């Protein structure tokens, strides 16, 4: 059972918190979302939409019903109980059918009619900016505010150091805490520099949700981010959540990344006041990369790396982005954010690594299809040895005990990705 008490707003010097006491199977927690004081007026404490959405996936994964003392928006209550919960359970029985017990309110909140999107500085984020620029969409849907949410994403960078998920989500190792805080701050600073240069307000939301919900980030990031938006319903009328998955990749599985079913989740997390959209979902990653390459603000800010604060040039996300930019003939535009010289001197090796892993990464498969459709040609004799090497390494990695993998990656293969 998850029991959520009525939310309150607390002023803390230069910041304000929307918070609620939560009891999870006898474990008492205080879940909060913190914003700078200038956004305190937009926090919503007359309903618990943010807290219900924050917990719905967690509850379904653990078999917890939810009781909430405060009401939630009528539209949200209807959509979660009539569509979202039954759909996830029908697709995968590892998602429990749960009950949400609370009151409802039909009152639509007055808000500032802002249109927001997250600024991670990644391909999906910049494609969203491109699609919502002047001339590309109606005025009421053009981006007015950028956001930066600390809801657990920085924790993922610890995987590159060989930590297991159990240690990462436990968040007790001092090295994990220090690295997570460092990555979070550096990513925020990059978003802030972009926002300042191009004249957008940046709304920073800090939260302790990753500590209250010790689970893999990929299993709940959509709900956590939407919860941060719903905490600020008095600000946002529209929120463009950058899509990471194409409709032909849609699927619902408990052990998969929740991004695969964003196109279901986002409309159903919407309320009478705030509407979510899966921005850019109709476009493939290659198509979005091409859009981004025509968006000059991305040239100095594109950052796709999952394991560090700057593009490492070696993790899967960096590799597929580098190769896509190369295929599109625009790699030199990104010389300030990628080591283009390293890429050019290791090009056959990188191509071999991508081709060796097309069966495990749908974005690698997309690149392979783009090459085939557009008549690109590699030096096969130069690439083939790298394909065989990385394919063999992948096979060995699948059969080795997990405790040996970080050691072999570092000391035998010389990588940490």
Outline:
The protein has 417 residues and is α/β, with parallel strands linked by helices.
Number of strands: 13
Q: Specify the number of helices.
A: 15
Percent in strands: 15-25%
Helix share of residues?
40-55%
Tell me the structural class.
alpha/beta
Give the radius of gyration.
22 Å
**Element-by-element helix/strand order:** EEEEHEEHEEEHEHHEHHEHEHHHHHHH
Inertia-based shape:
globular
Average pLDDT metric: 90
Main sheet: strands, sense, barrel: 11 strands, mixed
| Low-pLDDT ranges | 413-417
Distance between the ends: 38 Å
Question: How would you characterize the overall build of this protein?
Answer:
The chain is 41% helix and 16% strand. The chain has helices spanning 49-62, 74-91, 123-131, 165-170, 174-198, 209-212, 221-230, 262-268, 285-293, 316-327, 340-345, 347-356, 362-373, 380-399, 405-411; strands spanning 2-4, 8-12, 15-24, 27-36, 66-68, 72-73, 100-101, 104-105, 114-118, 145-150, 202-207, 236-242, 275-279. The strands form 2 sheets. Strands 1, 2, 3, 4, 5, 7, 9, 10, 11, 12 and 13 form an 11-stranded mixed sheet that branches. A hairpin with a 2-residue loop joins β2 (8-12) and β3. The relative contact order is 0.11.
Q: How is this fold's topology laid out?
A:
Blueprint: E1 2-4, E2 8-12, E3 15-24, E4 27-36, H1 49-62, E5 66-68, E6 72-73, H2 74-91, E7 100-101, E8 104-105, E9 114-118, H3 123-131, E10 145-150, H4 165-170, H5 174-198, E11 202-207, H6 209-212, H7 221-230, E12 236-242, H8 262-268, E13 275-279, H9 285-293, H10 316-327, H11 340-345, H12 347-356, H13 362-373, H14 380-399, H15 405-411
Parallel strand pairs: 1-5, 5-7, 6-8, 9-10, 9-12, 10-11, 12-13
Antiparallel strand pairs: 1-3, 2-3, 3-4, 4-11
Helix pairs in contact: 1-7, 3-9, 10-12, 10-13, 12-14
């Amino acid at each position: 059972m998850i029991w959520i008490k009525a939310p309150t707003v607390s002023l803390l010097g230069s910041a304000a918190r929307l918070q609620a006491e939560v009891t999870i199977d006898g474990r008492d927690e205080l879940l909060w979302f913190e914003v700078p004081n200038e956004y305190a007026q937009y926090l919503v404490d007359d309903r618990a939409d943010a807290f219900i959405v924050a917990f719905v996936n967690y509850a379904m994964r653990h078999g917890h019903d939810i009781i909430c003392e405060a009401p939630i928006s009528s539209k949200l209550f209807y959509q979660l109980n009539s569509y979202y919960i039954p759909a996830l359970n029908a697709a995968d029985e590892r998602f429990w059918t749960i009950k949400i017990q609370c009151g409802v309110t039909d009152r639509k909140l007055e808000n500032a009619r802002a249109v927001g999107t997250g600024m991670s500085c990644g391909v999906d984020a910049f494609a969203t900016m491109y699609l919502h620029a002047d001339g590309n969409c109606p005025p009421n849907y053009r981006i007015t505010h950028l956001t930066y949410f600390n809801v657990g994403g920085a924790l993922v960078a610890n995987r590159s150091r060989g930590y297991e998920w159990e240690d990462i989500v436990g968040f007790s190792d001092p090295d994990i805490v220090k690295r997570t805080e460092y990555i979070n701050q550096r990513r925020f600073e990059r978003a802030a520099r972009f926002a300042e240069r191009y004249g957008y307000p940046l709304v920073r939301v800090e939260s302790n949700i990753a500590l209250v919900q010790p689970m893999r980030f990929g299993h709940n990031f959509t709900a956590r981010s939407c919860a941060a938006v719903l905490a600020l319903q008095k600000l946002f009328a529209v929120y463009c959540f950058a899509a990471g998955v194409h409709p032909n990749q849609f699927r619902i599985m408990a052990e998969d990344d929740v991004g695969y079913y964003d196109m279901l989740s986002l409309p159903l997390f919407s309320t009478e006041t705030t509407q979510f959209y899966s921005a850019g979902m109709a476009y493939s990653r290659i198509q979005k990369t091409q859009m981004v390459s025509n968006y000059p603000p991305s040239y100095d800010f594109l950052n796709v790396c999952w394991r560090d604060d700057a593009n490492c040039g070696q993790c899967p996300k960096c590799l597929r982005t580098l190769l896509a930019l190369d295929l599109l003939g625009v790699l030199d535009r990104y010389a300030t954010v990628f080591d283009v010289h390293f890429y050019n001197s290791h090009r056959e090796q990188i191509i071999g690594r991508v081709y060796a892993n097309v069966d495990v990464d749908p974005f690698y498969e997309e690149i392979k299809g783009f090459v085939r459709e557009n008549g690109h040609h590699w030096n096969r004799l130069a690439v083939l040895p790298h394909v065989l090497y990385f394919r063999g390494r992948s096979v060995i990695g699948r059969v080795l005990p997990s405790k040996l993998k970080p050691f072999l990656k570092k000391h035998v293969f010389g990588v940490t990705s």
